[in-house]
Amino acid sequence: LKIIFDLLGGDNSPFAGIEGCVKSLDRYPDTEFILVGDEAQTETALEQYTFDRNRITTIHAPEAITGNDKPTEAVRTKKDSSMMTAIRMLKDDGDISALVSTGATGSLMAGTMLRIKRIKGIRRPAFCPVLPTMSGGVVGVCDSGANVDILPSQFVQFAILGSNYIRAAYGIDDPKVALLNIGTEEEKGDELHKKGYELLSNTPGINFVGNMEARDLLTGKYDLVVADGFSGNIMIKSAEGTALELLKKIKRDINKKVKYKMGAALMYKMFMEEKEFMNYQNYGGSVLLGTEKIIVKGHGSADVNCVMKCIELAHSMYIHNMNDKVNEALETAKETIKESEEKEDV
Amino acid sequence: LKIIFDLLGGDNSPFAGIEGCVKSLDRYPDTEFILVGDEAQTETALEQYTFDRNRITTIHAPEAITGNDKPTEAVRTKKDSSMMTAIRMLKDDGDISALVSTGATGSLMAGTMLRIKRIKGIRRPAFCPVLPTMSGGVVGVCDSGANVDILPSQFVQFAILGSNYIRAAYGIDDPKVALLNIGTEEEKGDELHKKGYELLSNTPGINFVGNMEARDLLTGKYDLVVADGFSGNIMIKSAEGTALELLKKIKRDINKKVKYKMGAALMYKMFMEEKEFMNYQNYGGSVLLGTEKIIVKGHGSADVNCVMKCIELAHSMYIHNMNDKVNEALETAKETIKESEEKEDV
């Protein structure tokens, strides 16, 4: 497996990326890395580690794309940036199977859309981050923001992509798939979601269990939430914001009384565990599904731990031949998708 | 102020409603209640309280509408139910200014849409629940689920309705209004939200501060979130679900070690305060805005405390002449709304 790693644009760039790649070499003896960034800086950083130099190559592309760059402009004007160079190499070099980046999400999406082939039958790629559930598992959300205007047939594509990802990366055999809606009843929601429910119910090969409400995101009832990118994004951010604000409030309140501080001291380890449980760094990032190559977007604030998790995700998708399985699933479901697409004015 | 109270359909019906009304008599000497439900049962329950009998009348309509009734059918087939009777009386009796119900939301919405006049210039009523913020205030969300398919001009209507409600019910002079979107930048979101941003920016008389992300719902940065009903609903349920699941997890984890239990014992009062802080019963329920009469929908599980909060909300809207102020605001913003509506294919 050859992974190209975009070193720039993240909060801890480039060092978290460099260390994460070097540390992953031992874990995955079948893997090689191409590091794209400021070559001199990368080489100097690499000198502090002992590893097989044949397994890491460096590419010089010192320009970074940041969150301040407008994606559509970044794609055109920053062609030699580390991200766009990595995307171009991913496209051109048949030996490179995966890209990992902790750079700007919008630009990664825009660059990928422009250069990397989609899987046949997939209208547009979708982001699928995972969150920890309170029952100790994970739940994926596909799409979580790459597609704000969608067609009903895309729900089926998201379900197929997400199911195969959850299976490949988290070893869940028959992921329970639910459609994000404003109620669990079949007739809930707007026309898009009503049609989506109908299509998902009729799609062979996925384990569709019905509509879900956002309040059940973290309960562990579902392994994959299928959502339009707009409401999927809002559900995730609302959950993340609430968890963060609530823990901050508890922390503030503890400091109000000596008695609370004493209690909290006894519970210190537990609170650390809760914090760790919700630390998104442990869950890597969001994969972009639906392209012929593997693309993993690490959090902008990714640390070494997070980078290694991203590499693990790319590796899992690769060794489980995820995209081959997606192709098979699309073939199985092709009647459902085709029938719907014919009615959609695409 | 004459309030008609639908006693049936809630988890604690009819007794929470009866007690809540009786207890509110002292607080609001200007207020009278009409209680709709099983008259014999209501009269028997009322006998245990001492109060001015001239200020409470009872109406016999013993049939309840539940969450299992399909709203469109309930409106037609359960015309004599307590809810539909209350709605009819609210419509016909000019002296009755407000309706409070803890019954089924969908049916209340359907019945209201059919019978109660909308404020001129408002396309459809909208629900506006409030949530507690971590800075100790509240934030309203309008709409939170009454409208799943909306037109851009409705964002302006929601902003006007919500701002005036937050001002009347919570005493916030110049509520900061944000549009729920998937990013804070102006150009974020689908066409609907881009157009909504533009309209809100150009609406005189509201304090529009821009797009917001769902992660900032509880931070206290905003007093009112304007949202399409679909994503507003998802944001709220995701926040509620996360808070609930997180507290449940903490509770479970405390029980794992004696040390944690000891710590938690010291922090008992604090945990109770957190629980109370997030107890939605303290925040009453969701008002339905945009109708000529005041309509408050209490939580299905409303207790006496929650019922009294609902009555307080109705009373505040009444004494602050909220709807007059909405009319003035609609007049001020009429050019913005008109211009947009002309382009919308209504």
Which labels suit this protein?
11-stranded mixed sheet, homodimer, 346 residues, alpha/beta
Number of strands of chain A: 11
Q: Largest beta sheet of chain A: what is the strand line-up? A: 3-2-1-4-11-10-5-6-9-7-8
**Count of alpha/pi helices of chain A:** 13
Oligomer: homodimer
Note the run of SSEs of chain A as H and E.
Answer: EHEHEHHEHEEHEHEEHHHEEHHH
Largest sheet of chain A: 11 strands, mixed
- Average pLDDT of chain A, rounded to a whole number, is 94
**Bulk shape of chain A:** globular
Q: Can you tell me the residue ranges of chain A where pLDDT is under 50 for at least 5 consecutive residues?
A: none
In whole angstroms, the N-to-C terminal distance of chain A is: 37 Å
As a whole number of angstroms, the C-alpha radius of gyration of chain A is 21 Å
Strand content of chain A: 15-25%
Measured as a percent range, the helix fraction of chain A is: 40-55%
Given helix and strand content, the structural type of chain A is alpha/beta
The most extensive interface, with participating residues per chain, is: A-B, 53 and 53 residues
Describe what is shown at a glance.
Chain A contains 13 helices and eleven strands.
Give the SSE layout.
The structure is a homodimer of 346-residue chains.
Chain A lengths: L1 E5 L8 H13 L4 E6 L1 H8 L9 E5 L10 H7 L4 H11 L3 E6 L3 H11 L10 E7 L5 E5 L9 H19 L5 E5 L10 H11 L5 E6 L11 E3 L2 H26 L3 H9 L1 H10 L7 E5 L4 E5 L5 H16 L2 H11 L1 H10 L3
Parallel strand pairs in A: 1-2, 1-4, 2-3, 4-11, 6-9, 7-8, 7-9
Antiparallel strand pairs in A: 5-6, 5-10, 10-11
Helix pairs in contact in A: 1-11, 3-5, 4-5, 6-7, 6-11, 6-12, 6-13
